[in-house]
Amino acid sequence: MKKYLAILVAIILIASVCAMCACNDNKLTLYVPDGAPALSVAKIVNDKAVGKQAVDTVVTTGEEVVAKCSNGEADMAVLPTNAAVNICKKRNDYLLFSVNVYGVLYIVGTQRIESLAELQGETLYSIGLGNTPEYVFKKVCDTWGVKYQGENAIDIQYQTDATTIIPQILNGKAKFALLGEPAVTQLMAKAQDKGIEVFNLFDLQQLWQEATDSSQNGYPQASLIVKKDLLTDEFATQLMASLTANSAFVTANCSSLSQLLGKAGSSLTVTYTTELIARCNLTIIAAQDAKADIASYLSTFGITSIPDSIYHENSN
Fold it and tell me: Could you give the angle at which helices 183-193 and 162-170 cross, rounded to 10 degrees?
């Protein structure tokens, strides 16, 4: 009898271990770049789940997010929409699920100006060579005939990231800059501490809307892609519910967001406020409902072929 009891106990222990391993193996990984993209999934970071499905969120560099998707390691990822579309086109296992960020770019300066044309003849330090900041800014300039090439044009000096631009504004070596949130808010705070006046001159989201006659303020800058085999009707519904509830979550938890995202890997030292969150344009739209905006936006990158097959089609 004792022998049978020992065998039964052993079977139960083995089953328990197997169940735990299966549970751990079933945990999904969401990769997301630091900044506004991470803010767009803060509720998932907090809940560590979508519905009953466990999710680990890793906040890292944009380059690593693209790499994790390119090799198929990411279950889900938020990344620049142009990169998201390219990955979905090259691989058959991801679908474009939602647009999460509708633009976070602003032009700031230590001198007030009233129009983009006044930047001609000036130096503008900018992030994003070969990516959204470059293409959006040049599209807006082209619309209003503002020169960024040739004689008396804007001298655009592209930098690796905001950390190399902010010190140049603060030490007076740079007068104008094109930056994204939350870096703009970081710059403003540091400038105030030093007694330097920095003006928020232009909202590129608003200028893009005017330039493209879009119904949406801004452009679909960052999007979420998800492994195709994960998108059951139940999981897709729960995922959209989490994303949609994110806006209320981040607004209600401003004071703890920096710590929350920091635990997931964020390196930003910024105090989130309702004003900053609003400027990050966390607009969750199902990708299939944003096709026109996505097509218009990606045309500036020379991407004109976007097959319908890369979009997740809602069952509703």
Answer: 20
CA dist 106 → 145, 199, 203, 247 (Å):
19, 10, 5, 21
Residue type at 17? Answer: V
Is 181 in contact with 280 (CB distance < 8 Å)? yes
pTM score, whole prediction? 0.85
Q: Do 106 and 200 form a contact (C-beta atoms < 8 A)?
A: yes
- pLDDT tens digits, 183-236: 999 999 999 999 999 999 999 999 999 999 888 889 999 999 999 999 999 999
Beta strands 176-180; 123-126: pairing state: parallel
Q: Which residues of 23-46 are buried (b: 16+ CB within 10 A; e: fewer)?
A: eeeeebebbbbbbbbbbbbbbbbb
Report d(CA 144, CA 117) in Å as an integer. 8
> Could you report the per-residue pLDDT of 257-277, keeping only the tens digit for each?
999 999 999 988 888 999 999
